[in-house]
Design a protein that fits this description.
Blueprint: E1 4-9, E2 18-26, E3 30-34, E4 44-55, E5 59-72, E6 76-88, H1 91-96
Antiparallel strand pairs: 1-2, 1-4, 2-3, 3-6, 4-5, 5-6
Length: 98
């Protein structure tokens, strides 16, 4: 599954670390995705993935997960999922391509 995602480092003390990427692999325990820069190991990250399935066939969804960075390279990272939920994507988000 290759889907667009947003990532955001939580509890950042300095400049917020956030960016756009693309999922490369999603499993029950983690997500491998592309990044603009290496993410710090052990830090908590929130991921928001545009989900391909729709609620009741019409309402677009996003998969929102929080977890820790367990692997990081120049242009990709792996986050071990600690919590997740599905949320509906609003119309404003759809217009912006979120």
């Amino acid at each position: 599954m290759r889907e667009d995602l947003k990532y955001r480092l939580l509890h950042a003390k300095n400049k917020p670390v956030e960016g756009l990427g693309r999922t490369l692999n999603i499993g029950s325990g983690g997500i491998l995705f592309t990044t603009k820069e290496p993410l710090p190991l052990g830090r908590t990250v929130e991921l928001s993935v545009n989900w391909p399935a729709r609620l009741d066939g019409t309402c677009p969804l996003k998969f929102v997960a929080t977890g820790r960075v367990i692997r990081s390279e120049t242009d990709q990272a792996v986050v071990r999922i600690e919590r997740y939920q599905f949320k509906t994507r609003g119309m404003a988000a759809l217009a912006m391509g979120a």
